[in-house]
Amino acid sequence: MTTHAPQAAHTVTLPGSLDEAVAALAAMPAAVPVAGGTDLMAAVNSGLLRPAALVGLGRISEIRGWRYLDGHALLGAGLTHARMGRPDFAALIPALAAAARAAGPPQIRNAGTLGGNIVSNAPTGDALPVLAALEATLVIAGPEGARREIPVSHLLAGVEMLRPGELVGFVRVPLLHAPQAFLKATGRTGPGRAAASVAIVLDPARRGVRCAVGAVAPMPLRPLEAERWVASLIDWDGDRGHLDPQVTTAFGEYVAAACIPDPPPPEDGSEPVPLPPAAIHLRRTVAALARRALGRALA
């Protein structure tokens, strides 16, 4: 979504399949795909974007549901937050359902889509830390029926990008059948953009803990050392919930320090510069979210 054409959109195409949408984008390189439009229309209304053409994805039924595939859930990029927030989906991927329910007011949840959250790649996107913690992969649709897969973290970090004429068609998520949690803090009461968010996913088969922190950096952050440390202290063969509260507190602080580190010491050997008050507050917020999310997952 980087087309900055000077004129407003005057061509709207409504394909009925994913391959038709890819063909439309290939035929109109300046076109912009649109699903829910919650981010796109905000950019248009603010004058930041004037697309020459639009390719609407709302009629593509194949990307508006999900199915099981080899121990994974194949989620359509057109799934709305409202649909992901329902109980049947929550039984499948609890943390992603929790993130969808926290995505904003009803009008945003009814229109906004999983694929739009990914492609817009806003640091405050609620689904992004969950997908990072789940180590999800994206199924990219390209011209002439081509399909390729990339880790979601690669797209979010800019390691791999969508090529001209490509669309995110599906998100492949491993079904771990294990506890998960998502928590976020906003700057106000009620739905709002995240000031910080944390996703925790337990992986008993690998005896691992996956954690991702959102909204504090341009992309979700994985505190890998903190993950390994706390995983080594969990009784995977017994009562996972029996973990000393001091451990969960230390885990929260470990995660927060990894994601919001102290400034590097000055090269001239002078006194280190302390964190500004806003960063200290954010670090405390992340520590509290990580501690609570781990506690919920273990419970």
UniProtKB/TrEMBL annotation:
<dbReference type="InterPro" id="IPR016166">
    <property type="entry name" value="FAD-bd_PCMH"/>
</dbReference>
<feature type="domain" description="FAD-binding PCMH-type">
    <location>
        <begin position="4"/>
        <end position="178"/>
    </location>
</feature>
<dbReference type="InterPro" id="IPR016167">
    <property type="entry name" value="FAD-bd_PCMH_sub1"/>
</dbReference>
<dbReference type="InterPro" id="IPR002346">
    <property type="entry name" value="Mopterin_DH_FAD-bd"/>
</dbReference>
<dbReference type="GO" id="GO:0071949">
    <property type="term" value="F:FAD binding"/>
</dbReference>
<keyword id="KW-0560">Oxidoreductase</keyword>
<keyword id="KW-0285">Flavoprotein</keyword>
<protein>
    <submittedName>
        <fullName>Dehydrogenase</fullName>
    </submittedName>
</protein>
<dbReference type="InterPro" id="IPR016169">
    <property type="entry name" value="FAD-bd_PCMH_sub2"/>
</dbReference>
<dbReference type="InterPro" id="IPR036318">
    <property type="entry name" value="FAD-bd_PCMH-like_sf"/>
</dbReference>
<dbReference type="InterPro" id="IPR036683">
    <property type="entry name" value="CO_DH_flav_C_dom_sf"/>
</dbReference>
<dbReference type="GO" id="GO:0016491">
    <property type="term" value="F:oxidoreductase activity"/>
</dbReference>
<dbReference type="InterPro" id="IPR051312">
    <property type="entry name" value="Diverse_Substr_Oxidored"/>
</dbReference>
<dbReference type="Pfam" id="PF00941">
    <property type="entry name" value="FAD_binding_5"/>
</dbReference>
<keyword id="KW-0274">FAD</keyword>
